[in-house]
Amino acid sequence: MQKQDVKKRVKNFNEVALGLTDQEAQREAKGCLGCKKASCIEGCPVGIDIPAFIKLIKEKKYSEAIEKIKEKNNLPAICGRVCPQEDQCEKMCILFKKGKAIKIGYLERFVSDCQMQNKSKSKQDKAAKKKERVAIVGSGPAGLTCSADLAKMGYDVTLFESLHKPGGVLVYGIPEFRLPKSIVEYEVDYVRSLGVTVEPNVIIGRTAGLDDLRREGFKAFFIGTGAGLPYFLGIDSENLNGVYSANEFLTRTNLMKAYLFPEYDTPITKGKKVGVIGGGNVAMDSARCAKRLGAEEVTIIYRRTEKEMPARIEEIENAKEEGINFKLLTNPVKIFGKDGWVDEVECMENSLGEPDASGRRRPVPIEGSNFKIKLDTLICAIGQGPNPLLLSTIPELKLTKRGNIEADDKGITSMADVFAGGDIVTGAATVISAMGAAKKAAVAINEYLEKK
Amino acid sequence: MFRIVSKDKINPVIHKMVIEAPRIAMKARPGQFVMVMIDDKGERIPLTIYDHDGKKGTITIIFQEAGKTTKTLAKLKESDNIVNIAGPLGRPTSIKRTGKIILIGGGVGIAELVPIARYAKEIGNDLAIIIGARSKDLLILEDELKGLTERLIVTTDDGSCGEKGLVTGPLKRLLEKEKFNLAYCVGPDIMMRAVCRTTKEFDLETIVSLDANMIDATGMCGTCRVMVGSETKFTCVDGPEFDGHKVDFAEFMTRQKRFRKEEQVSLEKGCRCKSKM
């Protein structure tokens, strides 16, 4: 796939990957063997009939191809961009071992974009209206998916969002250059077109509690509030100016559009020397945003090696192309400030020891290897936990030791009318796994309401 | 959309606005705040809920023109709409029935003190109140507070109303004379710090209500973090009230200045609104 020229793209927030041309899409689709026993489908958390939609592309029936995808996936333009296909459908492709796996994600994006460009709309199979009201809490990938599926089944769905804009991590977290916000708006509009009412500015647990919603006639709830609690390092001087959680740095940049300051009112300090701690997609996103905001030097500081990085390979490659430095096997131990602002971070070098619970080799600090990195901005991208704001108002709901909601693989929780899915159950994971969980929860909610 | 029901100018820079926000009005408790974002390009700022009326479905805010957002807000008129308001946020006040409470408010913080004072009185506490402002024309809500206590002391920096000087003068005098069970303070950071230093000398438990820079105000970003004792707390979800003797004011005040340069740029650029003053 064509990408925006690297020299240009580090100076703007426009989308990096430009999508396939018609010709490229045809060539890619023609490579698909159309396996009878298609293992790629097993690799897809929402079970898209991949060979079928690719066959439709071959036949140039693009609008039918997108409908085929939408039978299972309500947000294809998003998934085509941010799914880790290399670990899912494409990894299961029979051609993967030869290094020639079909670029399923690119094709998914291609047909989604075709539909958007043609301004055509998906048909909405209006199911017979079942009258029960269902409340969805959180409008990220899980909430959007659960809303859409339940609306398709005929339920009266209201989607509550605490921020002023729906989309959750898709709007506050993932940057414009990876997932344009117009795409998210387009997909949210599709969910609205299914009959879902979207209510922003409502913080369930504060603006209204579950009991209030029960009184308003809601019969079931889906909680998809994500992983919205930033972790800090727990080392000295973390509250110095210039030290950000990745959540803050990305929210200012993406949701509040601080990169367009002062046209937009929310400010961000534009660092010249930026350090980003962590090795996941959030760390890559933060580093690449910092670069685009005008940083001269951006360094990713990660405690293991590149092999263990949880970020997508594509994003690591993009970051490298854009001149992001990688300081691997390195662990921050102390932050130093000057006049209230971060000035240096002291680090230790690591070696890799025995594998830990995650199966990755544990980093072991090397005694006496301490050294300092000079910087004016430090971003902590070491993970996020479950936000307790809503959960603390539902003491009857069983949580895990880590504070996530205890739910089975259907999204059933310890409370009969409360279902949950996505990062709030699993801890920080991917957009598509949240969507997969939300689909199962929608089925479980339907079963629950039909039995009532 | 949230419609402005009425708007009054309390003094040249402080305004009172009643806004339709039925869900928030039903839930608001003393000490809580809302996040306000005026339009699609705006920033999100926290403003204390001064009053709320569940039946009418309205909330009242009182704010001082300081930065770009509050200056823009001041230009809105009755019947105009504010695009986004979310809340109520923060923990409601932790004040209980404890006996004698001394309440101290400064500047526009007096507007935040009023709902606390009303509530403290309502649950059976005996109040003494000290309020301070730079000068007489900047002093607000004196009459509201008079109804809650016979002991209301006013100070102004220039002596144009009440005692000349800072709130800590009469505070010290009162604490030397009698015993209080609790102090509560809301106002400029520098005033809260001074009040805490004074009450510390008398070993009097002191609650402060912090006004930090925020974005989501649901505990998601951590921009509002503050050291309280040896722990980092988020003002938006753990506060806004904290034990004033444990707050690291030096750090908090440094953090509050971190976007000063940008705030200046924003102010100079001026507002987007079409209506003229």
Q: Could you characterize what this model shows?
A:
- The complex is a heterodimer of chains A (452) and B (277).
- Chain A is of the alpha/beta class and 452 residues long.
- Chain A has helices spanning 6-9, 22-30, 39-42, 50-58, 62-70, 76-82, 89-92, 104-117, 141-152, 169-172, 181-193, 210-215, 246-255, 281-292, 313-321, 388-391, 423-426, 431-451; strands spanning 2-3, 17-19, 133-137, 156-160, 197-199, 218-223, 229-230, 243-245, 273-277, 297-301, 325-327, 330-338, 341-355, 361-365, 371-374, 377-380, 384-385, 418-420.
- Chain A is built from 18 helices and 18 strands.
- In chain A, strand 9, helix 14 and strand 10 form a beta-alpha-beta unit.
- The radius of gyration of chain A is 22 Å and the shape is globular.
- The termini of chain A are far apart.
- Chain B is of the alpha/beta class.
- Chain B contains 9 helices and 16 strands.
- Chain B has a 7-stranded antiparallel β-sheet. A 7-stranded mixed β-sheet of chain B has the order 11-10-9-8-12-13-16, sandwiched between helices.
- Chain B starts with a strand and ends in an 8-residue tail after the last helix.
- Chains A and B meet through strand 7 and helix 13 of A and helix 1, strand 7, strand 14, helix 8 and helix 9 of B.
